[in-house]
Amino acid sequence: QFTPDGTKIVSYSNDNTIRIWDISSRKQLHVLEGHSAVINTVQLSYDGSKIVSCSSDKTARIWDVLSGQQTQLLEGHSWVVESAEFSSDNSKIVSCSWDNTIRIWDVLSGKQIQLLTGHSNWITKVKFSSNDSKIVSCSYDKSIRIWDVLSGTQLLLLEGHTREIAEVQFISNKSKIISFSYDKTIRIWDALSGQQLQLLEGHTDDIRGIQVSSDDSKIVSYSNDKTIRIWDLLSGKQLQVLEEPNSVNTASISFDGSKIVSGLNNTIRLWDVSSGKQIQVLEGHSGEITTVKFFPKESKILSCSDDSTIRIWDISLERKIQLTEEYPGVTKTLEFSPDGSKIVSGSENKTAQLWDVQSGRQLQIFEGHSDEINGILFLPDGSKVVSYSDDKTIRIWDVLSGKQLHLLKGHSRWIYKVRFSPDGSKLVSCSHDRTIRIWDISSGKQIGLLEGHSADVIEAKFLPDGNKIISCSWDNTIRLWETLSSKQIQIFEGHKNFVDGIQLSSDGSKFVSYSWDATIRVWDISSGRQLFLFEYKDVTEVQFSPDDTTIAACSKDGTIKLWNVLTGKQIQVLEGHSSGVRGIKFSSDGLKIISYSDDKTIRIWDAYSGKQVQILEGHDKHINCIHLSPDGSKLVSCSMDKTMRLWSSNNGKIVDVTETSVVGYIWKVGVQIGLSMKDSIWKNVKGLEDQQKLLVKQRGGKF
């Protein structure tokens, strides 16, 4: 908690201590020791001069902030003291306990003034009214009670919750009361009459906490149902649902009501209230986050965690926030435009984005899909973008306006691949529904249905003349189809397990396939004859060289192998990756091979010598996709670290790099989800402050 003047922080921990910290120096001022069991609540007096703490040791204690000394021991409760609070004039303290009683204490003498009884189960929260004349309490007995401070008598009994009540507080200048319960509801009550005014329903699991905005217009609630919900206090209507990947431990709304900060597991997220969009991710804690709060007057966040640390985060870096707003989620797929001036990307967050290559600026966002995007591609003339998704649809977008032109529906399960016809007039798609479909791009209508495979169809593509389509499936077969009639012409059999991919030679005379049977096979299309069989386990991708003389394949074993197409002989093994290779690309002249891997690196190889020419490092998690610009000058990559990077060389095209070239990224969009310092060594470091050195050590770095 912040002291009222905003200069200090008060924290309490399962180590049974309370600590007072100076914010500007980050130094600990006092350690308050005395409790012999877990501390449940700490509250500051309104003038910031005193602290009241309550504990499972059955006591409450009053402390002086300036000296750090205990001034009073409040004894009387016979079980766990759950909550305690100062009156607004700082003369009294109210406490509640699992002994089913509420007690009022005199701050100066430490003596008990009143004993309030009536609840039949544990009392979880007590609060004073604004004029200190009343107290509100809530309990596991499912009731809320309002009490007269002077006489200690019960004034009102508020009933309606069907399960234990976790919290209650006065709101709207103390004219209303808000409560939440394990019945998954929030209720608003009239403080004078005790009548229920609003019932807020929507959460599907236990509510962990609520907060009312400083202007009393909104309520923020967070829950085990993996959501944060924003409600209008006056009408009780739900305004926004913010979806998290797990149960939300803690959340807080900023003082101006524009942002929400949340904590779950070891991740902090920042949200925009008006749009409901996530705008920043803060990682660094190594344990469960227990509290997050906004600084009262600064663009900073305070957090504490099970990792035994308290951290202060500066969120004032506008560019960082701006880039995160533009680049949400993990990018799975990307591609350069035909002229190399733009990049289109598709994300797990169901959107596609268009980027300017020169500046890294977002130009368009394509919204419409209801599930994550599996692939995205430019029309050959660069005027349109096609995206396909787990939502079973294909969408065609106008690049200039960002508008959806066509919605292609027909598949009954998710779509694996979409490919253009050579003339750019048609699309072919294949799906988990075992079908292949042909679509007319100008009208968006289905013009062909290819049925015959008995399992998932993993790949389908047009032959160079556009008159035939070739497909592969988990039914262990490859099939050739006539585009116009949609009839099957030929079936290629031989693989003993799922066929995971196929690649065509540039002249369309041959194709190569790879399978779960640990083989790669080269086929002649016209005769249907298998030409070669290469044994290679866990293959992830196969490519023909541009001149069709070489086949390159990569594997989960971290190697890349090259074969001569004419002789069938293995000519190279490229070794260097320390983990599975996800994909490979030939340069347009066939002289270089570019690979990307689970080891977080991209590597450039000389195709003839097999030597590694360059290693591109920077991504912090495995790389999902890479794409070369049409002229070979640049490379774009995306990773599970939530960043996308554009790479270039200091001496011309990236495909022309040598071992002495300097290769780096020109720009990066997205905020990397973790800064890896584990096992890093820091030598001759100057200018780091003590807290920065501590941070390096906490993240596994060594000086």
From TrEMBL:
Name of the featured protein: WD-40 repeat protein
Keywords carried by this UniProt record: Repeat, WD repeat
PROSITE patterns reported for this sequence: WD_REPEATS_1, WD_REPEATS_2, WD_REPEATS_REGION
CDD domains, alphabetized: WD40 (cd00200)
PANTHER family: TRANSCRIPTION INITIATION FACTOR TFIID, TRANSCRIPTION INITIATION FACTOR TFIID SUBUNIT 5
SMART domains given in the database record: WD40
Segments annotated as WD repeats: 1-31, 32-73, 74-115, 116-157, 158-199, 200-241, 282-323, 324-365, 366-407, 408-449, 450-491, 492-533, 539-573, 574-615, 616-657
Keyword Repeat appears in the UniProt entry: yes
Top-rank lineage group of the source organism: Eukaryota
